[in-house]
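User: Could you write out the 3D structure of this protein bound to citrulline? I've included everything you need below.
Assistant: Certainly. Input first, then the structure.
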Amino acid sequence: MKRIALTRPVSPILAQCVLTHMERTPIDVAVAQAQHAQYERCLATLGCTVRRVPAAPELPDAVFIEDTALVLDELAIITRPGAATRQAETTAVAATLAYYRPLHVLAPPGTLDGGDVLRVERALYVGASGRSNPAGIAQLREIVTPYGYQVIPVPFTGCLHLKSAVTQVGPETLLGNRAWVAPEMFTGMVWVEVAPEEPHAGNALWLGETVLYPQAYPETCARLLARGIAVQTIDVSELAKAEGAVTCCSLIFTEYGRLSNFTGRRTPSQ
Ligand code: CIR
């Protein structure tokens, strides 16, 4: 079975991205594109088949594809991103995901960003954020409950998405910043705390054997290595200026075979 990594090219107008918790600083798009290409190469080296959703040069945040969908084993949920300028990103992602999973689509007034959803087995921890509203979380629960998933809303502060504060780095291990999210919310998981001087270091991309991790956080990286966690570091500094990190530039899932009855239609959730 193949592990697919869906990615989307960096837009030439990345500098016009939405920013919430960061000051706008100049972004070198060529550097961002080179870092993104390196990110894709790392995913391939770590066992993923990289597939690109067609570029959307007019959509500055399109590279942050994680926010547009949640891909589970049985289905994919096409989100309705909380930033209005990002809602057009979902169309092409849905067209691609329709080859791999039956689709459900979130409807107004619900909003949800994939960056707010941390999946641990059958638990979907969902950040109650400025991007993911109660209606969006309720729709998600309605869609996934029949498949045996539990939706657990999680309060957090200080950062854009739940996965800016905490991500999974091992079967029973989370990496997070307890100033932004309470470890007690995640029952039964071991908690690795980010280094105090690296508050943004909680976003890691766990690929089973290895964690892909920003090279900007050496102190936290040392904590992961001390736990015996294999880490591959990568420079994503230019993407970070757009408030992006390592999870948000891909959608990772197992290919169980293409859907033979693909029609391009999508199933509304309501
Ligand atoms: C935004 O504010 O939506 C983008 N500039 C950054 C999104 C990053 N997404 C993520 O971490 N899941």
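The first helix runs from residue 29 to 45.
User: Perfect, thank you.
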